[in-house]
Design brief:
Helix content is about 70%, strand content about 0%. With about 475 residues, the chain is mostly helical. A two-stranded parallel sheet has the order 1-2.
Length: about 475
């Protein structure tokens, strides 16, 4: 006789030795490097040229503004993650503290934003390594990294421990090279630039630049999705998120200022690919150029690894609550949601094939800003005793998120709105369908698989597997 789970109708996780609960293996250091692996990845290697086109010489101010928004969001995220230590991030917080529809909106925004982020990371990898074979190599990178993800988040953390210090060392080389380079390029960088007219800088332009740069900060969302996998979430995440954010802010200010010094405003704005390699190339040291390209490849691969893991954890949380198909909630023997990993990889391949890195960056920034707007609203519902950070940071975060999202390029704003509306409606429709079946067939019918009902002769004893 086979034991079967009352929630799925499938053989129980206990009977087949497959865990339904993700293991808590990660400490503060692991969470910090996983966040940095996402933040110090695609964004720092690609976001400064488009941001310079709108912010001009005020690029450092745009970086600071993006950091302020990220800090407000990080404070809300840390408080929420400490109070609800389960995978799902903003989806879980919005659903439990606001309303189911708010959770679905946050979940769809996160999945869309991080799918675009994964496509951007793959595009950055290709742009620095082999730009003449962009599509097939981007697809290959996503497939390989997704396969690595199924090895488990602990293995991912170990990889991040190796990659993050290496990336920081490469960025330090970029900063030092800019100090050694002559001020501004004396020859046109024709292989990497287009004719770009830098529009006169306005306050709205600086805010648009801040919205684009926010893409580079959004990696700390990865840490929030680790709530179910870190030891002592209340202590670990409240330390890890601000620490990772502070390291990223200092790094971005240094790199942004160095690019402005070496390339100039017009030169940086005109760059279409590999801006950091272009800056280092001014000192005529080919070995350093190779080092930067290798570092960019390692950073973007590391970011892709973390982003795809974050996507799968949110898919897992939504599938558990029937806001996505239940079969996506399967957790494999290694403790990873392998079906969700595959689904995230396929979606990222589609976006990579349809959009370039620049468009993916803007789309990701817009979606993730909406995601954090929901998080800030959810944080305001926490009791005072459950908050470590003041409530005004959540209010400020919400207002800035909505403002920066609205000021991003119009095409990406329209696409984001369409994706959020359609995705939320589909998720709501699925939840309604499951609820309708549960009412029609009985309180436990929806818990069984499609071929297993409460009267099936081979159902076997019912047990409840841990959620």
């Amino acid at each position: 006789m086979t034991l079967r789970c009352v929630r799925t109708g499938e053989p129980s996780c206990q009977s087949v030795g497959v865990p339904e609960v993700l293991p808590r293996l990660l400490g503060t250091g692991d969470a910090v490097v996983l966040g940095l692996a996402s933040m110090l990845g695609a964004g720092v290697f690609t976001v400064f040229p488009p941001a310079t086109r709108t912010a001009g010489g005020w690029l450092p101010l745009a970086v600071v503004l993006a950091g302020v928004v990220a800090a407000c969001n990080a404070f809300s995220t840390a408080d929420l993650a400490a109070n609800q230590p389960e995978s799902g991030g903003g989806y879980l917080y919005g659903r439990s503290l606001l309303a189911p529809w708010a959770g679905r909106l946050a979940g769809v925004a996160f999945l869309a934003g991080k799918t675009a982020s994964a496509a951007a990371a793959a595009g950055v990898f290709v742009g620095y390594v082999l730009p003449t074979h962009s599509l097939w190599l981007a697809v290959l990178v996503i497939v390989v990294v997704s396969a690595m993800n199924t090895a488990g988040v602990r293995w991912t953390a170990r990889g991040a421990w190796l990659l993050v210090p290496s990336v920081l060392a490469v960025l330090l080389v970029v900063v030092l090279a800019a100090l050694m380079a002559r001020h501004g390029p004396t020859e046109p960088l024709t292989a990497m630039t287009d004719e770009v007219n830098v529009t006169p800088v306005t306050p709205l332009g600086v805010l648009t630049g801040a919205g684009l740069i926010f893409f580079a900060f959004a990696g700390y969302a990865r840490m929030a999705t680790l709530s179910e996998e870190v030891r002592d979430p209340a202590r670990t995440l409240r330390r890890a998120i601000p620490l990772a954010l502070g390291i990223a802010l200092i790094t971005y200010l240094a790199v942004g200022a160095s690019l402005l010094r070496s390339l100039g405003v017009s030169g940086l704005a005109a760059i279409t690919t590999s801006p950091l390699a272009a800056s280092v190339g001014l000192i005529e040291a080919p070995a350093l150029g190779v080092l930067v390209r290798v570092g960019a490849a390692a950073a973007s691969a590391s970011a892709l690894l973390s982003v795809l893991a974050g996507i799968s954890r949110t898919v897992l949380a939504m599938a558990r609550r029937h806001d996505l198909p239940r079969w996506l909630a399967a957790v494999g023997p290694r403790g990873t949601p392998w079906r969700a990993d595959i689904a995230g990889a396929l979606a990222s391949v589609v976006v990579a094939a349809l959009a370039g890195p620049a468009a993916s960056v803007a789309l990701s920034a817009c979606c993730v800003l909406v995601y954090y707007a929901v998080i800030n609203c959810a944080a305001l519902r926490l009791p005072v005793s459950a908050r470590r950070w003041p409530a005004w940071t959540s209010v400020l975060g919400f207002l800035l998120c909505m403002l920066l999202a609205a000021l991003l390029p119009r095409t990406q704003v329209v696409v984001t709105a369409a994706v959020l509306v359609v995705g939320s409606l589909l998720s709501t429709g699925l939840a309604w369908w499951v609820g309708r079946d549960a009412i029609r067939d009985g309180p436990t019918a929806a818990s069984y698989g499609p071929d297993t009902g409460p009267e099936s002769p081979d159902t076997g004893p019912e047990i409840t597997c841990p959620e």
